[in-house]
Structures are given as structure tokens and as C-alpha cells.
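CORE FACILITY INTAKE
Project code: CF-77B
Contact: R.S. (postdoc)
Sample description: multi-component assembly, three entities in total
Requested service: structural model of the whole complex
Turnaround: standard
Below are the sequence entries exactly as provided by the requester. Do not edit them.
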Amino acid sequence: MISTDILVIGAGVTGTAVARELSRYCADVRVAEMGCDVAEGATKANSGIVHAGYDAVPGTLKARYNVRGAEMYPELCRELGVPYRRAGALVIGFDEADRKTLGELMQRGITNGVKGLRMLDRSEALALEPSLNPAVTCALDVPTSGIVSPYEMAFALADDAALNGVHFDFDAKVCRLSRAEDGLWHVLSDREEYVCRAIVNCAGSFGAELHNMICDEKLQMIHRRGQYYLLDRANPQPFSRTIFQCPSVMGKGVLVSPTVHGNLLLGPTAEDIDDPLDTATTADGLANILEKATRTWPKLSTRTNITNFSGIRAHLPGDDFIVGPVAGAAGAFEAIGIESPGLSSAPALAEDLVRKIAEAMHLQKKKEVVPCPHRPKPFNEMSDGEREAAVREDPMNGTVICRCEVVTEAEIRRAIRRPVGARTVDGVKRRTRAGMGRCQGGFCMPRVAAIIAEETGCSLAEVTKNGGASRLLSGTVANYLKEGE
Amino acid sequence: MADMQVDILIIGAGPAGLAAAIAAREDGIESILVLEREKEPGGILRQCIHNGFGLHRFEEELTGPEYALRDICRARELDIEIQCGTTVLSVSPDRVVTCVSPETGFRRIQAKAVILAMGCRERPRGALCTPGTRCAGIYSAGTAQRFVNLEGFMPGRRVVILGSGDIGLIMARRMTLQGAKVLACVEIMPYSSGLNRNIVQCLQDYDIPLYLSHTVTDIRGKERLEGVTVSRVDDRRNPVPGTEIDFECDTLLLSCGLIPENELSLGAGVQLSPATSGAIVNDSFETSVPGIFACGNVLHVHDLVDHVSNESFRAGHAAAAFVRSVPGEASFISVEDGDGVRGTVPQKIRRNADANVSLMFRPAAVYRNSTAVVSCGDRVIMKKKAMIYTPGEMAVLELKKEQIQSMEGDSITVRIERS
Amino acid sequence: MEQVITCINCPVGCRMTVHLSDAGEFLSVTGNTCPRGARYARQECTMPERMITAVIPVEGSACPLSVKTATPVPKKMIRDVMAALSSVRVSLPVSAGDVILHDVLGTGSDIIATRNLP
């Protein structure tokens, strides 16, 4: 039984942003996460776009948090050392109906307070992005649209929260919530039992399930899967901006976008599925992306495809976020239905929600905040001079483990030793990019696994790809030989 | 600017780099430095513990480590400096190489000649766009080979292998012998690209079924792999609905082709061939950048290490000659791929070639009782008939230097003529 | 008795039909296109042999030791040889060429190391 003031449920970008905000107050804060790491749900598999805010219906929480969040991103990412780039975006159209829709989007954006929007004609659009389909007739230019590494954002938020006293429990799926007569919340997870004054439901795909345990107004969540292609780095990439297709009777379309690490992302699909953990890709889904993306980029080739993946969006029929205290459940707060633009909204949502929590619980602000530690530049992005200094300072920078992404042993060890450190091969991969490249870990994975085993004091056979039963290996050659006798 | 200077810098101490170094030293080059990123020299041969290496070169059958050891010992006899644990970060067009190691830190090395011998990597799952989940238990065959043969760990118990290249076949036998159960080897093409010997001795000996014209169409398992679906494919390699076979397995090994690893070459401005994914070279294995040479699997993927060594000796000799006397402007005959031929190396031949030249290429399909023809315009220069030309075996045609010197056109074409 | 096998000597991969007496003695072969094929057919159908390579654990070494049979051994003994290897104790250092196990299972073939382990 663990006593704490506040338990945040879920360590995605919303949960970690909320935890970080809460860490500024005088309160014991814990985070219970069902996965084995931060950012294991929707946060690790989405488009990585910081939307400008033209898309959301004015007056909704989505519109409010999106616009404010997008404003907060550049400074927040600088502070946390998270890769972010204001790449800009174009929403492209192919006919008069599209032009009309784009006009509406622009109007909506202006109402929401998005700056710099303008309509482009064909030649202006092609001048900005020469790889576009020449059949394009019009485009909405969105200069304030940004790109970010979503999971790195959550890792940095979690580290910052942890440095300021927040404790993270992983493999802790919450299965029961109840409020005792003394007003305290009893939370049963499959790892720990918690007693706390307040709970904050940031459980992503499982948000409605938890909500329904404690609230009479039941919610039905729709699990909407989005599949992607991730293409290899190229210099230059065919597109420097995020290219959205105009929503039409044909559907929402797919995006083609550079990532902050120089890859190119194609997707997502939108399929409603039953199992919120079913992040498989399908032949149909992948074919669908190619068909649609070709409309943006006729010369599309998957020759340089690195990987395919999918993520699940937590969609509510009301089509807006639900953020605030849970009706009829004192001390319970929630942020649910956090689908796109959830990543863009997270900082603003957390700011607003935590203010409400602090008021309700009469929390005092801490006098001092531990500042976010300086995060060294990735070795891959250093100049020769910087590399020279980095190896002099730490000889382990002289051992390159991941050759595709040029990640050093020092960087991998540091990722494991971060405040909320990596424990798995995927955890190292998302924090350092080791294994993210074109060989997909073929060469570096055994070496990464060996470093994890050494740092965490386990045997190589116990190292997992991604927690749970995802062990890399099934035993030693010695044991197998003996069994064969 | 540079921290040190060498005559010949060789990137990679696998069979290609070692052979190139040995050849250059035997030609009298004193200042040779070989940089190797792993802790020991030997390259991928260190993990290829099976036999079958060296039949052409040594006329005996060696295992991979034994083959590597011969070159390592020879390099030691010749006092060639090999620095292990050293990763090359960049090569500039004027042959300044930057590298790091924990012992020597960051260095810039100016070389008179650079030999690229970085080898190749395996095509990962992403390159195949195979749908399904992203669970643990999916490895390229070479990664699994490393785990078993160098780390002493087994990747899994029940195994399906996608791709029937030699590494996949070898791993089918290795996993079986070391105690795992291999359920199937699945090949999307109607033929295997592996050696007949490996089909018989790695699959048939252990009753492992080979599914030709099949591929993996689904991957299941949330955490660890639980199973895969295998489907037959049509002539255009599209899966045929209704032909699905499900396998319960915890491991999927991918043996779906190798790609020369040319990121450093690209950084040096070396032109690559789309057919081989390796550098475009002339008959002395010099790339489009003067003084930068390439040999072994970084140039084009070989089937036999004996051929890698042979090619790399030539590259080493050529680099030595380059260091001795920078040659004047050469005039070239270009080598074109004709019908049935892919990725002929070299792509250019010096008109005044001073030695015979081996034209190496991969047949585009299986051709039985056919003739490889080298022609210059309408004139046939040479013909070589064979009972079989197959994509699984690199074909080699030896052009005499007299034949080259007597050529008149600007290009020659290599093609396969069906009989 | 007839047995159909694929020749492994070269990429042609001739399908050869081997005729054997009821006692299993080699009589003749058809379908081969060269003498090497005939030799292989006779050997493979009367007394098939294989080289065996394997890795075995070594006390005190993270890296296992790769080994091979010095000469080919009867194919039907592959499993037995692997089983025999499971109980071999090896101590460091080992050099390539060292005999790890003499005359494995009376085959006349030694198991020898194929790499150095210092």
C-alpha cells in the first residue's frame, strides 16, 4: 500500500505534462503507467505534428488548448532539450470544392487566433514544395505548424517531473478505483495498491474505462487506429513542410511530413478497431496509405522504407477533449478523449488542468524548482570539433554502437541513467535513436542489449524489447544443448 | 589540419580489407592503416562458423573463423597495423578520414589512397513492408547468427525463416543443431537464391520444408512473436487469398538480401550504381573519386568469400600503384548491362588496361544452357556458354588485356543469350 | 531400388536417379552431367557424410567456442555428435586447431577448435 497525495494514471505526453505541472506544487505525486516505459501508448505512434490550430472548431477545448499549446511548444522544447522545428505546413486542394473547404479552414484558423495563414495558388504552392503533385490547384499555407518528436517530449517531461519529486511506477495497470468513506481514493493496480487524495485520469485509450468506474455519465470510447510508413533520412527530403490533404467527401486524407530527425512520415489511416492494444499494421491499411499519399507525392517510392507502425487514437463521439474534475467524484480529475491535436495541446491542457487541481486541493507552489538538466547535443549532430571534445571528455563517446544513426556507448549509458531511464531496447531506441535507422538494429541491437544487461544488472536473456514477455532471447546455447540430450 | 598521414587507409578489417592490405604491403607500401569498428578483425566471417569457405583460394574447406585467421596471421606477419574498436565517421573527397575510438579519441587522417571495405548489411523487415505487429522475436538472420555463434544465446525455440538466401539456410541448420525447431523456410521467388548444397544439407537433412513462391503476410504477437501467416504469391509476387498457412512460432528470421553499406562512400561523393548499390568502379576498383577504391561486399554483394579476397587483392595492388604514381588522364570503355544481366562490375575499363579484367555480374533470372556474350557494337568479343546462369551465383567473365586493348568503341555490353 | 537426389556440386543442381540393389549397394546413376555428380551420388546413397560445425560454451568465456569435425562423419550420427558435444568441458585458453574431443563416438574424427579464445 502506497500513500500519496496525487496519483496520475498514465505516462503518455498528457500524463507526463500533468505530472510535471503538479511537481511545481507541494504535494506527493506518483504516476502509475500500465506500460513498461513512458510514452507507450498513442504518444509513441502518431504524426508528431504541433498543429497550428486552424482545424479545431472554435470554442472547443481542442481549439483552446491547441492554439495555446502550439504557442508554448518552441520555448518548452528549448527548455527541455527536445527536438522541435517550425517546419510549416500546406493543406493542399485539387478542385473548387477543396478551395472552398480551405477557405473555411482559414476562417476557422483566424477565429482561433492562428497567425500567418494565407491561401496560395498552384504556382505559389509548387514554388514552395516542388515535389507536390502538379495537379494541385490551391493550398492553405500554415507557417506556424511545427514538428516534434512526441516520445522524446514525454521522456523530457517525465525526467523533469522526476527531478522535481514525482515517482513513476511502470507495469502498473489500474484495475479498480474506489472512494472510501474517509474521502481517500483507493487505487488497485496489478502491481501496487495506492491510497491518495486525488487521482488524475490521463489513461489514453483506457480513459473512458476508468471514467466509467467512478462516474454515472458513461462514455464510450472509439479506438481509432492509424498506420504509418517511415522512410529513411534523405538530404534533401522531397518536402520541407508537412503536407496535409484537404478533408473532402473522399475522407480526411493522409499527410506526408518530414520528421525532426530527417525522416519522412506517411499516414495515418483511420480504422475503428475493438482492441485498444492492437497496434498491428495490415496489408490493406498500408496499401491505402500509398494510394492516398501518391496524390500528394506522385513520385512516392517505398524503396527507402525503414518501418511501418500504427498507433491508436482515443476518440470520443463528442469529438472534443473532456478535461477537468469528474462529475460526482470529488478528488477525481480527468483528461480523456485526447486524440489529435492532443500532442499539440498537452502543455496547455496540463497547465489548465493542474491549475484546477491546485485550486480544488489548495496546493501551495514550491519555492524552488529543480531546473531541467542540460541535455548534450546528440553525437550525430555534432561538428568535428564538438565530437573531438566529447570523446576527450568521455572516452565512451569513442565507441559508436549504432552505425546508422551514429549513437555512442556514452549516449546509450546516459539514456539508461536518465531520471526516468530506459530499461528496454525500445526504450534506448526512442531516447537515443540507436536502432531507429536503416538497418533497424540489425547490428547494434545485441550490443545495446548487452549494455542494458550490464547497467541494470540482469542477464542478457532477461533483456526485453519492450517489457512484459518481449524477451529478446530464449536461453543459452549451453542449456539448449543439454536439453537436446 | 590532419592529425596523421598514411599512404593507404583501409576501412574495415573483414576479408576485403585484410586482402587489400596484404596486397598493398606485398607491393611495398610501408604506411598502411586498417580501421575496424569491431573489437577484433575478421568481419562477418567471425560469426560464420560453418564450413565451405576457401575451396577456390586455399583448395580446402575452412570455416569462417579459420578463413579469417589465415588473413589475420598473414597481416600480422607483414606487420600491418589494424586498429580495432575504431569507427570511421566520414571520408572527404580529398581523402581526409575522421574516426573515433576510446583509446585514440577523435582523429583526422590524411590518406593518399582510401580503400572502402565496409561490407554490407541485411535488409530489415521495413524494406519488405510486411504487415503485422512489432513484437520481439523478429531478427535478421545475421543478427541471430551473432547471438548464437558469438554471444552463446538462442533467439528462440520455434522458428520460421523468410528468405532462402544462404545465410537463412545456414541459420536453419544452426538453430536446429543447437536445439531449436525450424518449421519452415519461405521464399517469395519460385527458386532459392541459396546454393544447392545448402538446400540439401541445411534443409533437407533436417526435413525442413521449403515453400517457394510463398511469403509471410502477417505477423502476430503482442509482446513476443506468437505466429506468422504464410501465403502463396502469384507471378507478380502478390499474395493469393485462400492460400494462407499459419505457423505457431516465437522467432522469425529474415534472410531477404544484403545491401552494400555505402553511407561513408556517399559522404565522399562516390557515385553509386543503382544496380549493385555499390560504387561505380573501373577495372582497378577505383571509384568516381580519384584515389578512393572499393572492394568486397561494399562494392557488390558476393556469394563466395574467395571472390571477395581475389577482388580485394586487385584493389590493394591498384591502390598501391596509385600511391606510387598518380596516373595521368585515362580513357575508358564503359560496361553496360544487357539482356539478362544485372550489376556488372567494373562499370568502366581503362582502354590501356595493364592486366586481364574479370567482369562480374548477376544473372537476372535462371538461364539454362545459355551463353553470356560480351559485345562491342555488332562485334562479339567473347562468349561463355554454361549449363546454368542463376541469380544465386555471381557470373565471372575474364577479358584478356589484349582483347581490351583492341576494342574500338566507347562501350561494351554484357548479355545472356538463351540457346 | 531407386533414389532421386539433387546434386550439390554446382548451381546446375542435376536431379539424379540412383539405382541400388536390395541390399543397398550402389548399381548405377542417371541424370548426372559430370563425373563429380556420379561420385557424389554413390557416396550420398551408400554412405552419406557431413562435416559438423557447432558452438559450445566455455567456462569463463562470454563467447562460445566454435568447433568442427576434422573430417566428415556419417550423416546419421549428427544428432549423436551434437549430444556428445553437450558434455564437453573446455577450459581457456583455446587455439584454433586444438583437439577438443578425440575420435568422437568412434567415428575416427576429432572435434577441433576453429577459433582462438585467449
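Facility notes:
- Chain B touches chain C through 29 residues (CB under 8 Å).
- The two ends of chain B are 60 Å apart (CA to CA).
Invoice: internal transfer
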